[in-house]
Amino acid sequence: MRVLGIETSCDETGVAVHDSARGLLAHCLHSQIETHARYGGVVPELASRDHVRKLAPLIREALERAQTPRTALDGIAYTRGPGLAGALLVGAATARAMAFALDIPAVGVHHMEAHLLAPLLEADPPAFPFVALLVSGGHTMLVQVAGVGRYRLLGESLDDAAGEAFDKTAKLLGLGYPGGPAVERAARDGDPGRFRFPRPMTDRPGLDFSFSGLKTHTLNTARREGDAPQTVADIARAFQDAVIDTLAIKCRRALDETGVRRLVVAGGVGANAALRERLAEVARRRDARVHYPRIEFCTDNGAMVAHAGCLRLPGEGSRDDAFDIAPRWDLESLAPPGDAVTAPAAGASAPGAGSRG
Amino acid sequence: MSGLLAIDTTTTACSVALRAGKAVLCRYEAVGQGHSRTVLAMVRAVLDEAGLEMTDLGALACCSGPGSFTGVRIGIGVTQGLALGADLPVIPVSTLATVAQGACRTHGAAAVAVAMDARMGEVYWGCYRRRGAGVVTAGEEAVVSPDSVVLPGTGDAWLGCGTGYGAYAEVLAERLGEAVTVVDPERLPDARDCLALAEVRLAAGARGVAAEDVVPTYRRNRVTQG
Ligand SMILES: Nc1ncnc2c1ncn2[C@@H]1O[C@H](COP(=O)(O)OP(=O)(O)O)[C@@H](O)[C@H]1O
Ligand SMILES: [Mg+2]
């Protein structure tokens, strides 16, 4: 089965062609980082405008690179949510209409499920069950994955996402956007002994996260200590150490509580080299293994959507004329492929439950 | 002649029109924000009624704005998807011209001053004169405050139509005085008029553009603070 995948949930336009027998055939990506950089964060209307400009050319390019004539497609998958409503609508409209014209089924996939399953695109994929740490600009969650569509939320951020904390810290330290790579770079020259920041929510049981207090702590330290380059590096180091330590402690707990020996890390923060080193150490001590998607599939991309679509289309693909999106969509409400999926009511403003239902 | 399908989702109306031989098959509905639930079902309905498939079509047309930002993007997204799937060229048509064409069709207007409510104290403004079976623009389309709209030249008997005349009745009346007779303050674009304008262009030799070259017309480009 050959599937076109379309991702437009936030600030990357991604298109890919995945074949269930032959694997990934092509993937194309347009990142909007430059569009949003001067605003220090994603501006939803600008994101939607960019998606509608870039999506059609990327579809053409992906099909060409995959040497797949459009009539050879068996289905189309698009990100239905969660994400920015206006951005999601661009992908949903284009995907449903293209499937309509080709008279093939389409399916709306869950963005976080696509992230969770992205490591299965790699040559040495993790077996089920595994624990997944999703750390991006919009999400921080630990999920127990028993199989496709069998997800249990172990913990999540009660406020800022980890990537968001990196971005905000970079902004207040004057390090630019996106913040993750900038903070990581600055932290390399930082003295790990100069400041010690709190490790939020690690002194009590549980797998939830909170990063907004850490952000405030960083702000206060920066105000007090000034902005000499070495000081900025030392603060970046202290901040990064605190985030990584917190994530590592929770991952360790999640592995111990579930007895699972495979950890999957996805999302943009997963690109952080210091985090990777730290998690490798956690895994080594438990005889566990850490799996990452390749770096380009840590962040948003079309390949993960095409891949999830391959798994979802046989049971849930449809020739429905209506397309709805789900800006908020509870991951735990998903069911294994083929079973009925409980999803928020149709409609662009689908309310959706809180992510712990 | 192969079929032509036109789509409009740029305002609170949703409509499609299909040219099939001598017949034009249409659907039109006030959907508010419900385009995503309606537009492809309408396309399927007119194709079924005509006994045509997407592969029987020769081209697509769509209103490309200005209008509701989300509505404009749904229309363009759907049109691009259909064009990519069926390998068809697209003829993008101005939403304001489509409204003007509708006024010519129903009121026999020769000159139409369109004002569509653009929210935030502004209107999408465009003036058109009838030419042949279509309309041609007289001056640039713009998003402007209703107290600063400008009519192109004198001597025309302008008919005013579009939701701007409902939302800003007094300001526009004061600004335009006798020069404009408001006939249709509730008129929204209708795909049958988009179809008519696209047919005029096709008859004049236009071929349409590829899916990826269909771009939205927003007119309002100030969308961030600062
Ligand atoms: N090396 C890094 N260290 C820490 N954070 C990073 C790094 N690289 C990227 N990030 C963060 O990852 C986030 C982007 O990841 P992505 O998965 O695209 O998130 P989203 O889709 O939620 O925007 C940003 O917040 C960015 O700062
Ligand atoms: Mg993401």
UniProtKB/TrEMBL annotation, chain A:
Entry keyword tRNA processing: yes
Region (Disordered) location: 334-357
GO biological process terms, semicolon-separated: tRNA threonylcarbamoyladenosine modification
A Pfam cross-reference name: TsaD
InterPro entries: ATPase_NBD, Gcp-like_dom, KAE1/TsaD, Peptidase_M22_CS, TsaD
Catalytic activity: L-threonylcarbamoyladenylate + adenosine(37) in tRNA = N(6)-L-threonylcarbamoyladenosine(37) in tRNA + AMP + H(+)
Biased amino acid composition, Low complexity: 335-357
All copies of domain Gcp-like, residue ranges: 24-306
Record-level Gene Ontology MF annotations: metal ion binding; tRNA N(6)-L-threonylcarbamoyladenine synthase activity
Keyword annotations from UniProtKB, A to Z: Acyltransferase, Cytoplasm, Metal-binding, Transferase, tRNA processing
EC number(s) per entry: 2.3.1.234
Entry keyword annotation includes Transmembrane: no
PANTHER family membership: TRNA N6-ADENOSINE THREONYLCARBAMOYLTRANSFERASE, TRNA N6-ADENOSINE THREONYLCARBAMOYLTRANSFERASE, MITOCHONDRIAL
Protein name per the record: N(6)-L-threonylcarbamoyladenine synthase
Protein's organism: wastewater metagenome
Record lineage: unclassified sequences, metagenomes, ecological metagenomes
